[in-house]
């Protein structure tokens, strides 16, 4: 007879007593990401945590800074996203191409002639952070300072470390918003601070928006560049094929995203009401962990999912999410990757790892999949 279908929804009991439901597989993951009964509102999450007497994550969700568009539901979500949507359309983002190319050239020039280069430190980290800071109007000299804060938001850190980072970041952003309001520039924070329509954001909302964009704008793209470069150097035949035929590049970037997604393990939801998914009934007010990687590696959707194949049609991966929270920055992330990989392919005939694969260190995070460093010989 037919083999029994694999289970796709699994109840989990965490060491601290938190109960979670893990959702895996392409169909259930897409459902959980787009079905409005799986909600995100951070004030509601706080209520559930308090009801269940779970202390561990209260620090995170009690902060107004965490109440940004990714942690809100409609209609609030729509209002917040609408305020910045036009800044991130494909057309608007394409205008940034010359500047992104210029920054990439400068960063590559700086490491010219070096024997071995850490691609993360030299390019994958500084490029996206420079771009998002310029868009938002964050002064260059402050970028290194808040790297440690946004790190605390995405890495596995103690709640106190998260709280300290939030306090510091909040104070910094509040001051920046006040300065922009007094002397607006040609940037997104100034635009938000001087907006006077009915849907204008208050200071707390602008600060939360800025923090989300700053964190999401670089903590993820660094991993697309790093993981994509690692995929290329460990598959020299496909590197050569891509070098010979650049029309493969947009598809290759989708395959990098599918193969080793920057946000790979889980994105969180909670149930607003009982929901049946994957043949399992999840009760109301339960936390749900949606596993992105399992959807991207579901063999029924992507045959031989563990094989990197730059020629496959990887569209439909869920590395940018799905539904109303679909990544706002996807066009920007794709453009940055396209510029970087074009330059790497133009400038270097071969690229090799300067360290054995087994010795590469991955960042410790339950959210992100990315390398600490990627030493390359180019
Ligand atoms: C949302 C991934 C780059 C801004 C998301 C989500 C994912 C994601 C998976 C949805 C999370 C969920 O539904 O729970 C990525 C990846 C990136 C990337 C893999 C790079 C390769 C960027 C960039 C920006 C950005 C460059 C900034 C400009 C956002 C925002 C949201 C979001 C604002 C929330 C959208 C909403 O709630 O409506 N991203 N992202 N992301 N991303 Fe990205």
UniProtKB/TrEMBL annotation:
Transmembrane annotation, as ranges: none
Stored InterPro entries: Cyt_P450, Cyt_P450_B, Cyt_P450_CS, Cyt_P450_sf
Superkingdom per UniProt: Bacteria
Pfam families: p450 (PF00067)
An annotated Gene Ontology molecular function: oxidoreductase activity, acting on paired donors, with incorporation or reduction of molecular oxygen
Keyword GTP-binding: no
Keywords: Heme, Iron, Metal-binding, Monooxygenase, Oxidoreductase
Family that this chain belongs to: Belongs to the cytochrome P450 family.
Full protein name: Cytochrome P450
Originating species: Streptomyces iranensis
């Amino acid at each position: 007879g037919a083999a029994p279908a694999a289970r796709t929804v699994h109840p989990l009991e965490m060491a601290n007593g938190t109960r979670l439901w893990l959702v895996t597989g392409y169909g259930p993951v897409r459902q959980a990401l787009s079905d409005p009964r799986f909600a995100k509102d951070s004030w509601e999450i706080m209520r559930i945590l308090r009801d269940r007497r779970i202390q561990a994550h209260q620090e995170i969700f009690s902060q107004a800074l965490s109440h940004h568009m990714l942690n809100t539901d409609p209609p609030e979500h729509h209002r917040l996203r609408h305020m910045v949507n036009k800044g991130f359309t494909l057309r608007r983002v394409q205008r940034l191409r010359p500047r992104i190319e210029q920054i990439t050239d400068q960063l590559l020039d700086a490491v010219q002639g070096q024997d071995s280069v850490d691609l993360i430190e030299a390019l994958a980290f500084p490029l996206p952070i420079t771009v998002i800071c310029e868009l938002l109007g964050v002064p260059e000299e402050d970028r290194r300072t808040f790297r440690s804060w946004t790190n605390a938001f995405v890495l596995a850190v103690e709640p106190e470390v998260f709280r300290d980072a939030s306090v510091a970041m909040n104070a910094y952003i509040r001051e920046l918003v006040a300065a922009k309001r007094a002397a607006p520039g040609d940037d997104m924070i100034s635009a938000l601070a001087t907006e006077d329509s009915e849907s204008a954001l208050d200071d707390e909302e602008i600060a939360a928006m800025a923090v989300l964009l700053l964190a999401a704008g670089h903590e993820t793209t660094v991993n697309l560049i790093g993981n994509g470069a690692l995929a290329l150097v460990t598959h020299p035949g496909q590197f050569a094929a891509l070098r010979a035929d650049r029309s493969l590049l947009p598809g290759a970037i989708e395959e990098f995203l599918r193969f080793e997604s920057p946000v790979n393990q889980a994105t969180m939801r909670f149930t607003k009401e009982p929901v049946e998914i994957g043949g399992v009934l999840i009760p109301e007010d339960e936390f749900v962990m949606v596993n992105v990687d399992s959807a991207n590696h579901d063999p029924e959707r992507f045959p031989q999912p563990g094989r990197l194949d730059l020629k496959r049609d990887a569209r439909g991966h869920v590395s940018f999410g799905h539904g109303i929270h679909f990544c706002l920055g996807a066009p920007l992330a794709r453009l940055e990757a396209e510029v970087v990989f074009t330059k790497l392919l133009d400038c270097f005939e071969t690229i090799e790892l300067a360290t054995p694969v087994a010795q590469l260190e991955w960042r410790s995070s339950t959210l992100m999949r990315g390398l600490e460093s990627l030493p390359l010989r180019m």
